[in-house]
Structures are given as structure tokens and as C-alpha cells.
Design brief:
Structural class: alpha/beta
Number of strands: 9
CATH topology of the largest domain: Rossmann fold
Helix content: 40-55%
CATH class of the largest domain: Alpha Beta
Number of domains: 2
Largest sheet: 5 strands, parallel
Mean pLDDT: 97
Distance between the termini: 18 Å
Shape: globular
CATH superfamily of the largest domain: Aspartate/ornithine carbamoyltransferase
Bound molecules: phosphoric acid mono(formamide)ester, norvaline
Order of helices and strands: HEHEHEHEHEHEHEHEHHEHH
Oligomer: single chain
Length: 313
């Protein structure tokens, strides 16, 4: 595969998802093999985080280490960025030290600005528009459970039309997976993302549907997916969101209406008792823990694509 300039949206890898998943699966299978290769040897990757993270930060740090590279974690408050240095100046300086930047930001515009001003690859580690790394891990999880088949499978999203749904719509549309999203009307996905997803779906044959009723979405589905009702940055709307999402919970009754073989996805962290119940998240149909593990393998495949081996290495 030729290298990739940046991963800002899952659309950036729309044509490369099958080989990325194949490489992630290979990395997963050979993770503990002696003599594994170290394609990031001599490389350093900056991780800029404006928001908290358990999975994304840890899986990137561990993944970079396992590929032979060095990770530099930088919370915004540790950087001069937190005191008003511009994103552009931060990008220019980090580009002189590092080989790539992983950035978790509040605003998608800031991720685009960092990528525009950096001379090294930038990875979107979640912003208010997208979470592409998450969706690569999710597609790997579905690929494992469906033995590589996406066409004809039916995925139901129950909840907020947020960053995770945006990347999921684009990712599902890219691989030909049918996705029905049940969201309250006022929390539907952004029209620009819907348009972009429809364009990808026209190529792949994926069917995307946008409805209100969680029960209609779940009926006969091959997998159910949910995320928190209050994302990072939405805390001021917490009370009105709790009201709007009443009824948008994945619980045993909803799961019982899905296909008998259905599994449940959640990107985590979960708000147990809100968007998902304990018995479902901890139950035999939960795929959430595999999903979390797959962040590591999928991101290692992305890093290999962004940072091909140095000449002579
Ligand atoms: N799913 C996810 O991105 O989790 P973190 O916020 O813990 O990184
Ligand atoms: N939608 C959630 C995802 C967390 C990984 C958020 O943005 O907070």
C-alpha cells in the first residue's frame, strides 16, 4: 500500500479499509511472536490530548512502543498551546522533532489546522466531528465476528448522532455494510456527513437509514451499537440530553429483538444504566472488550501506513 498523508476522517482511508484490516489482523495474530518487526524504529510520535482518554492514549503509546518507536504524550495544559501559542506554530515546531502527530481535540477545525500546518502526518484521535481510529477497530471487530463479510449485514445504531456515528456512517458506507441509525430528531447526524456517506454508499451498495425508533432499528439486526448520551464537550447539555435519550437504551429487551446471533458494540467509556445496561455490557453478546483491544491492532496498522520504513532501514 502507498503511504497515507493524514488520517483526519475515516473517508481518508475509504478505499484502503480491507488491506488495513488484514494488516491489523496480522499484527494481532503475531503480537507476541519473537523477532517481530520494528518499522517505527528511530521514529517519534507526539500525542496531543485536549480531552481525557483511557483507550486511545494507552493503545497509541503501547502500539508505538511495540512497533519500535517512541511516543511523547502532551496534554494541552503542558503545552504552550494551553497559553495561547497557535496551533500552526505548535505544528511547525513538533514537525521539526517528530515523525507524526496524534491529536485529540475539541474542534474538528483545529485538527484540520494542525494537519494543514504540520509537515508530518496527523491522526485525528477524536474531535467533535469524527473518531476514525475507533471505527477502524470497530470494523476489525465486526470483520472477525462475521468472518470477513460486511455486505448484507445489518448494524443498528441507537443513540446520539455524534462523532462516533459520523465515522461509523462513513466507514459502513465505505465497506458496504447496512446501517440504520435511530436518533432523536434534534440529535441526528450532521447533514454534511450524511451527504458524504451517501456518496460512498452509492459506490459500495450500502444502505443507510435514519429513523427515530430504537425498536425499529434493532429488529432483526446483526449488531447493535451505542455510545454515551453526553459526549466530552457536551456537559452543559447533560440534563436536556438525559430527557431526549430516554428510551434509547440497549437493554436485554431491545437485544432480544435483534438476530439471535447479534452482538453489541460500545466504544467506551460506558455510562452504565444510561445508554447500556450492566447485563448487556457484561453479557455473552457484548463485543465491547474485543473492540477496545482492537484499537491497539488497528492503530498499529494505521501507523505503518502513515510511516513507511525509512530508506535503508
Ligand atoms: N473509545 C475511546 O476513544 O476511549 P477513550 O476516550 O478512553 O480514548
Ligand atoms: N462520543 C464520545 C466518544 C468517547 C470515546 C465523546 O466524544 O465523548
Amino acid at each position: 500500500m502507498s503511504s497515507l498523508p493524514d488520517l483526519l476522517s475515516i473517508s481518508d482511508v475509504a478505499d484502503r479499509i480491507p488491506p488495513l484490516l488484514a494488516e491489523a489482523a496480522r499484527l494481532k495474530a503475531t503480537r507476541r511472536s519473537p523477532g517481530r518487526s520494528r518499522p517505527l524504529a528511530g521514529r517519534s510520535v507526539a500525542l496531543i490530548f485536549e480531552k481525557p482518554s483511557t483507550r486511545t492514549r494507552t493503545s497509541f503509546e503501547v502500539g508505538i512502543h511495540e512497533l519500535g518507536g517512541h511516543a511523547v504524550y502532551l496534554s494541552k495544559s503542558d503545552l504552550q498551546l494551553g497559553r495561547g501559542e497557535t496551533i500552526g506554530d505548535t505544528a511547525r515546531v513538533l514537525s521539526r522533532y517528530c515523525d507524526a502527530i496524534v491529536y485529540r481535540a475539541f474542534r474538528h477545525e483545529d485538527v484540520l489546522e494542525l494537519a494543514r500546518t504540520a509537515s508530518i502526518p496527523v491522526v485525528n484521535a477524536l474531535d467533535d466531528r469524527e473518531h476514525p481510529c475507533q471505527i477502524l477497530a470497530d470494523l476489525l471487530t465486526m470483520h472477525e465476528r462475521w468472518n470477513g463479510a460486511f455486505h448484507g449485514k445489518r448494524l443498528a445504531w441507537i443513540g446520539d448522532g455524534n462523532n462516533v456515528l459520523h465515522s461509523l456512517l462513513l466507514g459502513a458506507a465505505a465497506v458496504g455494510l447496512d446501517l440504520t441509525a435511530a436518533t432523536p430528531a434534534e440529535y441526528a447526524p450532521h447533514p454534511d456527513v450524511v451527504r458524504a456517506a451517501e456518496q460512498l454508499a452509492a459506490r459500495s451498495g450500502a444502505h443507510l437509514r435514519y429513523i427515530r425508533d430504537p425498536k425499529e432499528a434493532a429488529q432483526g439486526a446483526d449488531a447493535l451499537y451505542t455510545d454515551v448520551w453526553v459526549s466530552m464537550g457536551d456537559e452543559a447539555e447533560a440534563a436536556e440530553r438525559q430527557r431526549a435519550f430516554d428510551g434509547y437504551q440497549i437493554n436485554a429487551a431491545l437485544l432480544a429483538t435483534a438476530a439471535p446471533t447479534a452482538f453489541v458494540l460500545h466504544d467506551l467509556p460506558a455510562h452504565r444504566g444510561q445508554e447500556i445496561t450492566d447485563d448487556v455490557l457484561d453479557g455473552p453478546q457484548s463485543a465491547a472488550w474485543d473492540q477496545a483491544e482492537n484499537r491497539l491492532h488497528a492503530q498499529k496498522a494505521v501507523l505503518e501506513l502513515l510511516l513507511p520504513p525509512l530508506a535503508g532501514a
